[in-house]
Design a protein that fits this description.
By secondary structure, the protein is an alpha/beta fold. The protein contains six helices and eight strands, in the order βββαβααβαββαβα. The protein has an eight-stranded mixed beta sheet, with helices on both faces. 42% of the residues are buried. The model has no long low-confidence stretch (mean pLDDT 97).
């Protein structure tokens, strides 16, 4: 599938990987990257969403630092670069880029106009913020990092949000997980699932902590969530 160009809301433009369903029509899903860029894993997830009947797009959120990042989780040098990009990432500008992508997606030929976000790791945090700051019809967060520090925005969640939490997440310790659960417990729009015995990135196929049973369950729940809220 081709990359497309999306105009930023402030200045410049960035690329995004676009995948369409065989029918050419469907609701939209905005896939939000991990800290490794729009790499093979993210593109495969985007392709999979297209196979499920969605017009799917995954934007390059590191373009303001270094466009075109496509690295893996296999070497120490790549991890160091990933964390450097993560630490240099401007969350607020990233959300504006995601809003621009959401607008672009809804206007993409074949998209019904309904659109969701689905993010992993850094993307999981951004999916939560898209639930608080954007007009996305629904949002899915896989093991989002740093959400415990953003609970002041929880009252702004007015559309369905599905959260997948790894019980043994080395980047989201138990006290942070509990804070998230307590902070969102009263919001009728939020559904949370905790997966016992698994670490961060349990749904990253081929990753160190990939766990097939947990990943399959999370993916099934996500598919049902999208069918319910994007149909």
């Amino acid at each position: 599938m081709p990359d497309v160009k999306i105009a930023a809301r402030d200045d410049g433009s960035f690329s995004a990987y676009l995948a369409k369903p065989r029918s050419g029509k469907g609701p939209g899903v905005l896939v939000i990257q991990e800290i490794f860029g729009v790499n093979a894993v993210m593109r495969e997830i985007t392709d999979d969403m297209a196979k499920q009947g969605y017009v799917a797009v995954c934007p390059d959120l590191f373009w303001r630092q270094q466009p075109g990042i496509q690295i893996t989780d296999k070497t120490e040098a790549e991890w160091q670069l990933a964390f450097k990009l993560f630490n240099g990432f401007d969350v607020d500008k990233g959300i504006e880029d995601l809003k621009a992508t959401l607008d672009h997606l809804r206007k993409t030929e074949g998209c019904t106009g309904k659109a969701a976000t689905m993010g992993f790791c850094l993307g999981g945090k951004l999916a939560y913020l898209m639930a608080t700051r954007s007009s996305a019809d629904c949002n899915v967060s896989f093991y989002g990092v740093g959400i415990e520090g953003l609970l002041g925005e929880a009252t702004k969640i007015t559309k369905p949000l599905l959260m997948h939490i790894a019980a043994q997440d080395k980047f989201v310790p138990p006290e942070a997980q509990q804070k998230i659960k307590d902070g969102l417990a009263g919001n009728k729009h939020v559904m949370m699932h905790t997966y016992p015995g698994v670490d961060h990135a349990f749904a990253r196929v081929g990753g160190e902590h990939w766990n097939a049973p947990a990943a399959n369950l999370a993916n099934q729940r996500t598919a049902e969530f999208f069918r319910k809220n994007l149909g």
